[in-house]
């Protein structure tokens, strides 16, 4: 897929590298390997703009995020943070979408994390809020903030509780322990442990992304929203009514539902169009 096929051009990037490894799929690679892909203030702004573009680019349906080198993301740029602290200057606020534009992102489209290595602090906070997590066997996860006198304040604490339960969340957060990929899978943060290295976990993530992208883009957006409403704590009745009112009516009046039903009757693969939701 060439940039010329996009409705708008992707925003410029310096912290990340982006590519399009399959139709409808965006691949985002954190690219500060010398700093273990720690994210600084400029990186947060860049990523916020990139995810916003992804959500509003009709020709893209699924994104993958991974890291270059031996880390997925080891968290905040503590050298930058210490500089602000030493000078008593106020740290610039993160975007509303949170750490790396992901830790409190709501968004419209699914993001898959392909965790290739170290995933600490803000890196883990991003992972807790993406939609699907694949990990290499040597990946390592943790929230070590208590060991540095800070707090995981980018959205992970309530979300981790939702995912793993109170007692496990307390263990993870209050001890600052490091967990293997298999351990993270065991308590529900990782969907699948894949292969033996970065290339394999990214290749597998592309397969998952292609499988999702082969479905109706309208159905994917609305189904994801329904799960998200429940995960954010809304009751079943209220969430169902809101989903139908705010999202399903648009799907029901769209082209893709008609195409999906017609293709089923005619026993052929559907030909989806870009979502207009």
How does this model look, in words?
With 277 residues, this protein is α/β, with parallel strands linked by helices. The chain has 10 helices and 10 strands. The strands form 2 sheets. It has a 6-stranded mixed beta sheet, sandwiched between helices. Strands 4-6-8-9 form a 4-stranded mixed beta sheet.
Keywords:
single chain; 4-stranded mixed β-sheet; 277 residues; alpha/beta
Contiguous runs where pLDDT drops below 50 for at least 5 residues: none
The fraction of residues in strands falls at 15-25%
Which outline best applies? globular
Based on CA atoms alone, the radius of gyration comes out at: 19 Å
Q: Could you give the distance between the termini?
A: 22 Å
- Put simply, the count of helices is 10
**Which strand order do you get reading across the main beta sheet?**
1-2-3-5-7-10
List how many beta strands DSSP finds.
Answer: 10
Report the major sheet. 6 strands, mixed
In brief:
The chain is α/β, with parallel strands linked by helices and 277 residues long. The chain is built from ten helices and ten strands. The two termini are 22 Å apart.
Q: Could you outline the blueprint of secondary structure elements for this entry?
A:
Layout: E1 16-22, E2 25-30, H1 41-56, E3 62-67, E4 71-73, H2 78-87, E5 111-115, E6 118-120, H3 122-129, E7 132-135, E8 140-142, H4 156-164, H5 166-175, E9 178-180, H6 181-186, E10 192-193, H7 198-213, H8 217-231, H9 236-252, H10 255-266
Parallel strand pairs: 2-3, 3-5, 4-6, 5-7, 6-8, 7-10
Antiparallel strand pairs: 1-2, 8-9
């Amino acid at each position: 897929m060439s940039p010329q096929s996009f409705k708008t051009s992707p925003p410029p990037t310096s912290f990340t590298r982006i590519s399009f490894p399959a139709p409808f799929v965006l691949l985002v690679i954190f690219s500060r390997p010398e700093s273990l892909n720690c994210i600084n203030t400029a990186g947060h702004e860049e990523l916020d703009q990139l995810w916003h573009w992804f959500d509003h680019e009709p020709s893209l349906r699924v994104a993958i995020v991974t890291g270059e080198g031996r880390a997925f993301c080891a968290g905040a740029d503590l050298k930058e943070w210490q500089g602000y602290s030493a000078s008593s200057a106020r740290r610039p606020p993160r975007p509303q979408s949170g750490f790396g534009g992901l830790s409190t992102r709501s968004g419209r489209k699914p993001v898959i994390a392909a965790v290739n290595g170290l995933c600490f602090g803000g890196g883990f906070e991003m992972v807790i809020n993406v939609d699907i997590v694949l990990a290499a066997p040597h990946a390592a996860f943790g929230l070590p903030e208590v060991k540095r006198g800070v707090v995981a304040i980018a959205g992970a604490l309530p979300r981790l509780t939702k995912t793993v339960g109170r007692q496990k969340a307390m263990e993870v957060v209050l001890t600052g322990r490091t967990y293997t990929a298999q351990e993270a899978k065991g308590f529900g943060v990782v969907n699948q442990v894949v292969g033996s290295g970065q290339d394999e976990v990214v290749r597998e993530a592309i397969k998952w992304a292609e499988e999702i992208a082969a479905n109706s883009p309208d159905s994917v957006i609305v189904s994801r929203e329904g799960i998200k409403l429940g995960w954010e704590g809304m009751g079943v009745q209220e969430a169902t009514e809101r989903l139908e009112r705010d999202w399903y009516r648009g799907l029901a009046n769209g082209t893709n539902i008609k195409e999906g039903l017609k293709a089923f009757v005619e026993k052929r693969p559907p030909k989806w169009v870009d979502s207009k939701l």
